[in-house]
Amino acid sequence: MGLSRVLLLATALCGQVQAQDKFITVASTTSTEQSGLFKHLLPIFEKQTGIQVRVVAVGTGQALDIGRRGDADVVLVHAKPLEEKFMAECQGVKRYDVMYNDFVLIGPKGDPAHVAETKDVAAAFRKIRQAQAPFVSRGDRSGTHFAELETWKLAGIDIAKENGPWYRDTGQGMGPALNTAAGMNAYILSDRGTWLSFKNRGELTIVVQGDRRLFNQYGVMLVNPQKHPNVKAKLGQAFVDWLVSSEGQDAIASYRVNGEQLFFPNAHE
Amino acid sequence: MSASILPLALENVSYASNGQPIISNVSLAIDAEPSTIILGANGAGKSVLMRLMHGLLTPSAGRVRWNESDAASLRRRQAMVFQRPVMLRRSALANVLYALSVAGVPATEREAQALAALEEVGLRHLAHRPARVLSGGEQQRLALARAWALHPEVLFLDEPTANLDPGAAREIETVIRAFDAAGTKIVMATHNLGQARRLGDEVIYLQAGRVVERAPIEQFFARPASAEAAAFMKGELPWV
Amino acid sequence: MGAIAEGLRRVLELDRELWHIVALSLEVSLSAVLIATVLGLPLGAALAVKRFAGRRGVIVLLNALMGLPPVVVGLLIYLLLSRAGPLGALGLLFTPGAMIIAQSLLVLPIIAALARQALEDAWREYEEQLRSLGARELEAAVTLIWDARFSLVTAVLAGLGRAAAEVGAVMIVGGNIDGVTRVMTTAIALETSKGDLPLALGLGFVLIAIVLAVNAAAQLVKEAAERRYG
Q1: How confident is the model at residue B224 (pLDDT cuts 50, 70, 90)?
Q2: Three-class secondary structure assignment of B86-148
Q3: Is residue A49 over pLDDT 60?
Q4: Residues of C in contact with A224 (CB under 8 A)
Q5: Which of chain C's termini has less CB crowding within 10 Å, N or C?
Q6: What is the CATH number of the domain that holds C127?
Q7: Which ipTM score applies to this complex?
Q8: What pTM, to 2 d.p., does this model score?
Q9: Chain A residues with CB-CB distance to C83 below 8 A
């Protein structure tokens, strides 16, 4: 009896806050939100359509899980294999490419593993392991973590077996992991966006960039309304359509951090 | 006018706590007329006996029987004043009003009755003072005012002046006499012999949880029938 | 020291956004404390006054629940309110309503357990007199609560402190959505994870200042009332 009273009060309270009738919930990643892209992008979309976009920013794994539970209308992440698995489970309606940003290998200015000389990120990883230089991993099922694991594979290293005390698996988001790396003067793979907004750099700088294999593809999917009838299919699709439209793609390209473009729209490549 | 709740009959009442006997096989009849003093040394069981009579404790054996079966009515027609007065965190007047409200007196009549009760004990001028800042004697008078407002048939008093100076004690005795004059049956526990003599008509002498002697007051003081009572009066009580 | 000064400067720049975050924090925590008080005070009073089989077990359980980890409560409420969960139809996940529910559950044991202790002490003092006057159980409990109100204010403030300070529950059930479910603690967590430590620090000081102000106000009210009622 007490619980129903509580729920009644809570429902009344949240009804008060939800003054906006038209809104959708988008599950995305912490690194995307922390890049500041949404703060730039969403007001443009809202002005054009009157639809408020509420972004829940968590790790990629959790974002897709939120989609599977039907707690979001749209999922926007950057881990293509996981997205394709999502589609294979019929959890999404259709997957669209939206944009890419890239990862950069961050390391101490002193560069104990001498990776700054190469543009080959797999070679850089081999050098880091050889030198047993400190390396921070996100270890959190995120898109960035996934990219890091792929790069170890490309370098021919089975990192699960061939790591050591130099390899720090932290289970943290991008920001905290960068904090840890700054504190330890360690190497770390980061998305460019988070790095550009990261203020606590210490001795760290970009040591390897531009390797095509470091490009990070974003995909957007409408959560399947047949599996989850509560999904706002029409409004959600409007957002998806806008992202891949010329207005959406232009808005993405116009986002700058410290004068630099962060995301490169590629919906129609 | 309904019948009196008296006489009160205790039938083979015993009370034990944590295996320790405190009251042992007491049988008594309490009538309306005399003011009853329960006399005894510390630890004799006076307080427990009073609480058994007033209904705050349940006997381990035996029965406490009033001349009234309705529990609520029985509660309303008794009052008790404790050694340490317990006042609510509100004004003196509000404390009396509270007692009236619990007793079911209609809201419109409460204030007048409460003020009259305060007047009776000489606390009218302190009606709006927070009760907890009053002196010990004033608080005890307030406790009596609270009881007065209820017009109880029986007033239990558990060593009401034990913590008060003689002047305050005398004020309390004045109020007790007023209760008596108004027809309230007085049952008072005390170990103050002078007070017992001033206020009482009969004495029940209690020792180690048993009633050792019961007599009219003057007879008890002049010629205590039991050796224990005599020893008590002389101030030479053997430790049990 | 410089970081603190810079943090406070940045915080003042936030203006409208900060105001919204602070207002939401207060709305969520105060609502949760209100619900927890309405449910917890009677629960504490009942436990203080009534004797029943298993009472000791309930008291131990209630005391233990004071240490309920917020993140665990958040997870449990999340599973309840998710569309995939039993109460999904209410659509409360990722709203302030969900945050209020989670915080109410966190704060309820604190208020009930502390109230129980304060009221049990008070009952020891008042029991005989109240029963002598003929107060029935419910009446006595209400009187007890009112008379012990100054100790109970402390219990409520302890609950408010817990609600205002926690981040684990509101982060999970609220989703830290910009402009919708972002409160002070989740904003601090976000800025910290972005590496913007001065701003996080600044927000932290604002939060501390607010909690201090609430406690100071409560103390003043308490003292004024004590002077009046004794």
Answers
A1: confident
A2: CCCCCEHHHHHHHHHHHCCCCHHHHHHHHHHHHHHHCCHHHCCCEHHHCCHHHHHHHHHHHHH
A3: yes
A4: none
A5: N
A6: 1.10.3720.10
A7: 0.91
A8: 0.82
A9: 69-71, 228, 230
